[in-house]
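G., the chain you wanted modeled:
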Amino acid sequence: VVGATYTMGALKFALSTNKNKFLGSVVANGNTATGAGVFYTMSPKLTLNAAYGVLKDDVVSANKFTQTALNAVYKLSPRSSVYGGIFNGKNEGAMKQSPIYGGASTDTLLATVNAWTMGVKHTF
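Predicted structure as tokens:
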């Protein structure tokens, strides 16, 4: 993984790329994930962020998954926060990905998959 962030006042910019290689795998020989995001701190308690990412099959160039996301995080205390987000993912080629890691993927080729998250996070 190679990445960088840059903070300019209330804005934070992030860019990263991740190269995966699966030796001996029958599923895929490897892929490359690239993402960019912008975080905006509206107040000490509220942060909004937007992100865009691409997952490409390194062997079959037609296989690609793109995702856009919008999230909000509100701090309830120094160790607790609530969050919510909406995600849109588009599969191309033979990809069958979900916008949420570990989420249910689709069985339909070329599917667009929408998802949302919400929850409470507490650090012990």
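The chain has no helices and seven strands.

Shout if anything looks off.
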